[in-house]
Amino acid sequence: MRPAQRRLLFFSVIFLILGSVGGGFAGKSIGRKSAERTAKKAITDAEKKLEATQEELQAANQLLQDSGVINDEETRKRLEEFQDGIPWNMTLVNTVHSMEEGYVPELTEVENGLSVDARIAEELNAMLAAARADGINPYLLSAYRSIERQAQVFNDTVQSWMEQGADYWTAYQNTCKEVALPGTSEHGLGLAVDIVDNSYTGLDAEQANTATAQWLQAHCAEYGFILRYPADKESATGIIYEAWHYRYVGKEYAQKIQASGLTLEEYLGEVY
Fold first, then answer.
1. Is the pLDDT at 1 greater than 60, yes or no?
2. Do 108 and 118 contact (CB within 8 A), yes or no?
3. 225: pLDDT strictly greater than 80
């Protein structure tokens, strides 16, 4: 099992155990033996789900190859760009491609006490300034997150789903479509930001209708950013449409990716 898969399994098991034996089930207390049985079952279930995911990934890769898409001329030309390695600004992080263990970028503070990779701060500030000059009111809601902070966001989202009536496993699955597991989030790279409209800060479908979201989608590539999780691309990214999540890839690649209509995964010839 690859290190990235071990880390993903580890975090999955931790969250499953926490959800099973914590206070999530109406505060009911369980005994030590019951907790041990629950933990063992959680580990077994997680291992089975990981194996199933690996099989699905292999099948998806085979389907992609059989379809000829991965061998077409356009794809080959794109992949030739990276024959000497993927540049830092195009690093792919998702549930399959986790972050390098222990990686922490050199950070620069931008707005609202938030920080990003120092290499993108100038372009981010320029984009926000340009939006405001055009009468738009963007609000930087989230930027770099540590592993610990990502774990907190993930757990809080699971708890929110459970408070709405979902059982733990349903809440966990729903959360995975909205929030990346620790170690698999672009926020950990310091290259991703969540930007909302100052008049509406909800992270939901309505955000797409705000002036900020519409301005960013039209102008983000000019500053090296892409809308990371577009509409109708969940099958490619594994994440629902997020009109607020922008990722820095550099001006050259941002313009190419935007023009192609592809996600970062698709542009790199990968699957999530």
1. no
2. yes
3. yes
What is the rounded CA–CA span in Å between residue 95 and residue 51? 14
Which stretches within 117-269 are classed as H helix? 121-133, 147-163, 168-176, 211-219, 234-237, 251-260, 264-267
What is the pTM (predicted TM-score) of this model? 0.71
Confidence of residue 43 (pLDDT cuts 50, 70, 90): low
**Catalytic-role residue among 123, 242, 265, 266:** 242
Q: Is 242 an active-site residue?
A: yes
What's the number of domains the chain is made of?
A: 1
**How many angstroms separate the CA atoms of 180 and 187, rounded?**
9
Closest CA to 98 of 7, 233, 16: 7
Q: Is residue 213 part of a domain?
A: yes
Domain that residue 222 falls in: 74-145+185-267
* Amino acid at the residue 93: V
